Amino acid sequence: MINNGHVPSMLLYGEPGIGKTSIAYAIAGSSKLPFFSLNATHAGKKDVEQIVSEARLSGKVILFLDEIHRFNKLQQDTLLPHVENGSIVLIGATTENPFHDVNPAIRSRCGEILQLKRHSQEDIAQLITNALKDEERGLGKFDIAITKEQIEKIALAANGDARKALTLLESVYFASDEKEGQSIVEDHVIEHLSKRIGVYGDKGGSHFYNLLSALQKSVRGSDPNAALYYLAHLLENGDLIAVCRRLLVMAYEDIGLANSAVGAHVYAATEAAKTLGLPEARIPLANAVVEMCLSPKSNSAYSALDAAIAAIHEGKTGDIPLHLRDGHYAGSIALGHVGYQYPHDHPIGTFGGWVNQQYLPDNIADAEFYKPVIAGEEKRMAAIYEKLKSFKNNQ
């Protein structure tokens, strides 16, 4: 499209340091249109009005708006008509999911939403190698003793972020000792400077919720290595309460009746974590995550409840049977609230008490919401459930 002279408005979505700004500048250089750049975190209405005025004079301009998810309504109202009529080509960049964090009015006017992927370790290593050779924009004019393995360590630490890779490379150079005019890079310098470089994601941001989702899906998939990896990322971001809440939900949503003790175990672990605080909180949480990963799993109980809720919303309701209604007042007999049989008065083997009577309304008396999963402890419960059903059908 750009080669054919058409530059569409677009959103560039991806993690920091993967080239959103570089792509915008490359498009501007290829299109030859007047180019303006703003950051939504500190741009004001006047900044937008100046670009609108320039668009009226030039006929068409490109506006690169970084952190577009922070664009306020007043700025949007000023800009939107001009994006719509094509006098302003908007290239927005965001680290947050545009379907969650970009105003729908802006999103609908951007024909392209491009999700960029982080760079591979090989790409970052090539970038570092280029920077070491480039005398004009890099470190090529300096004599630096650095091995291929050390370049790969820096590339790994950058975690797909080109900007972090170049920043780390520069920091390593300035932190290295010089001998006879040559800077000698040491492994321990790279390791020290790399400690937190892979940590990314604001609390409450899209990436944070992606990490929570990945943690839960890894536990559900019984992969302790992946689950611990995502737990580590989440704890490095520091939102302990959100992590504890998600783990507690997982204990009942994904482990459920297959191992009913897990709920109590995870609750104890999360309470201990909140009492201890970070970094010690990681210890009980690690135990909880590994236990959930390797536990039998069942979602039958909450799936059954969801099925019952769906039935109610579909209108599958009816009157509560008279014998189940409240009979603890004098007039209840006159209203027909009689006939209830007390199960404890009818012992059945070692189960306790059971009596065959109807509990659901007449029009859905045969509805079955609960479908047991034959796993872990629920296998025993499922057998009881099926046995009671057979008693009911035979009486």
Strand elements, count: 10
Mean pLDDT: 90
Based on Cα principal axes, name the global outline: flat
Determine the number of helices (DSSP H or I, runs of at least 4 residues): 16
Beta content comes to 5-15%
Q: Kindly give the count of domains.
A: 4
The radius of gyration over CA amounts to: 31 Å
> Would you identify the CATH architecture of the largest domain?
3-Layer(aba) Sandwich
Family: Belongs to the AAA ATPase family. RarA/MGS1/WRNIP1 subfamily.
Protein name: Replication-associated recombination protein A
GO biological process, one term: DNA-templated DNA replication
Domain AAA+ ATPase: 6-118
Gist of the model:
The protein has helices at 20-31, 45-58, 73-84, 98-101, 104-108, 121-133, 148-158, 162-175, 187-193, 206-220, 224-237, 240-255, 261-276, 282-293, 300-313, 378-394; strands at 10-13, 35-39, 61-66, 88-94, 112-115, 144-145, 177-179, 182-184, 347-348, 352-353.
Give an overview of the whole structure.
- By secondary structure, the protein is of the alpha/beta class.
- The protein folds into four domains: 10-115, Rossmann fold, CATH 3.40.50; 121-193, Helicase, Ruva Protein, domain 3; 206-293, Zinc Finger, Delta Prime, domain 3 (Up-down Bundle), CATH 1.20.272; 301-394, post-AAA+ oligomerization domain-like (Orthogonal Bundle).
- 50% of the residues lie in helices and 10% in strands.
- It contains 16 helices and ten strands.
- A five-stranded parallel β-sheet has the order 2-3-4-1-5, with helices on both faces.
- Strand 3 (61-66), helix 3 and strand 4 (88-94) form a beta-alpha-beta unit.
- The radius of gyration is 31 Å and the shape is flat.
